[in-house]
Amino acid sequence: MSKKIKLGILGGGGDSLIGILHRVASSMYDKYELVGGVFNPEKSESIKFAEKIGIGTDRIYKDLDELVSEENKLPETERIQVVSILTPNFLHFPMAKQLLENGFNVICEKPMTTTYKEARILEETQKQSGAIFAVTYTYTGYPMIRQMKEMIASGRIGKIQKIDVQYYQGWINPIIHDEEKRANTWRLDPEKSGISCCVGDIGTHAFDMIEYVSGLEVQKVLADLNYLYKDNKMDIDGTIMLRFSEYVKGIIRSSQIATGEENNFTVSIYGEKAGLKWEQENPNYLYLMEDGEPMKVLKPGHPYNSDLSLDGTKLPPGHPEGIFDSMGNIYKGVARAINKEDYHPGEFPTIKDGIRGMNFIEKAVESHNKGNVWVKIDE
């Protein structure tokens, strides 16, 4: 029986939603053991948090430099093998680069970096290190999204002719209308978040999802973004038109000021023979729509689903699975890669997905700034 992969975490302490999501996901398949990390900028707070979640404090470090130095003093069989980066965006690149240069595998929150240039540098660093690198575009882990991907790849809906993805939230509404609050949240600070808020935070999820399920790559984008106030430097709403080819087009509608919305992420792919639709707030239902036929609803756990979908299903049909399970499937795929086991390429987003995401963010902002014109995505 193989030993558990030793996991370290950077960030995610306190009442962080993303922290508990990663911790639960990593424990889901008994593949990982959380042994330490840096949960908070203050070591004393990190130690308190480690005690709270029930892990030893001997491998809680004051910063990443100390983690790298001390872990590399340990025998290879004992040191941390993979580190999850759950910090604000501006720390992703320097942390990931340092970890890769020192032989650690990396699981990184999105967006992978704050610039496309940084993403390409990270790509070269990862190639030289040979380490596994995953970006947590969480929703690709849902069983019915994986079923959607496999149905499209098998030709079930025919040639794709229209893609429509909506990601609406309303969480920033109480912040954006208060001058002091919008000036003091890191999400709206370009120095910490990068050049985009809405596109960088949720638009990139939509972009990655489109390329994941469709198997197509976006060639050009035309964006119209909304900043709402003159003193607000980052977009909080946007509509982005997409071109995949001359006759295949799509749209991303993303907003963080959609009042009353919680996490309304809807993915619709229309082919010449059928359409598929999935809604994140009802993730167990994949809708199959065909001309002249009643709409069909596919659900996880049934033998009519693909192997990739069934591998990501942990419960019998009729038992809801959610975002923890989705992230858990990504961690499971990374574990297989680290352990050099066979795995499906759709099991976790890679550094390529992170690079594509950063390229998309920058091109969307460029398109808007140039007066809403078409801008080419790099191949």
Automatic annotation (TrEMBL):
Domain GFO/IDH/MocA-like oxidoreductase: 145-276
Domain of life: Bacteria
Domain Gfo/Idh/MocA-like oxidoreductase N-terminal: 28-137
SUPFAM superfamilies (alphabetical): Glyceraldehyde-3-phosphate dehydrogenase-like, C-terminal domain, NAD(P)-binding Rossmann-fold domains
GO molecular function terms noted in the UniProt entry: nucleotide binding
PANTHER family linked to this entry: CONSERVED EXPRESSED OXIDOREDUCTASE (EUROFUNG) (PTHR43708), OXIDOREDUCTASE (PTHR43708:SF3)
Protein name: Predicted dehydrogenase
Native organism: Salegentibacter flavus
